[in-house]
Design a protein that fits this description.
Length: 136
């Protein structure tokens, strides 16, 4: 990606994040993180990669909400970003973050710090290891 495209991607990522965080009041929206923006070479389109915290149903609902709000998001971004054209946004679920979480959980299971049968809440933060008393 060229230097100009990198600057545009960074600007779009920042502005889209602000709009989602401060301007959208859609109850369907879950916890969203913009992981990347990839504008096309002609700047007419931009793929917005998002990570969404939640189960599969919450992820689908949040993605639908983002697609539904796409025009509004584009309009607000065009008012804030100084670009000749505001790219048409497409929101894409970034599975790399959930993949990392899944791999981390599998490693913890393999090391015996958590059990596969533990509820998801227990899997996130393993219990602290007991402190060994110093021998005299």
């Amino acid at each position: 990606m060229g230097r100009r495209l990198e600057r545009v991607a960074s600007l779009l990522k920042e502005e889209i994040s602000r709009v989602i965080l401060y301007e959208l009041a859609d109850p369907r929206m879950g916890f969203i993180t913009i992981t990347g923006v990839k504008p096309s070479a002609d700047l007419q389109r931009a793929a917005v990669y998002v990570s969404i915290l939640g189960n599969a149903g919450q992820i689908r609902t949040t993605l639908r909400g983002l697609q539904h709000a796409r025009g509004h998001i584009q309009e607000l971004v065009s008012q804030r970003a100084i670009l000749r054209y505001t790219p048409r946004l497409t929101f894409i679920y970034d599975e790399s973050v959930s993949g990392v979480e899944r791999i981390t959980r599998k490693l913890k299971e393999a090391l015996g710090t958590i059990s596969a049968e533990d509820p998801p809440e227990a899997r996130e933060a393993p219990p602290a290891a007991p402190q060994k008393e110093e021998e005299e």
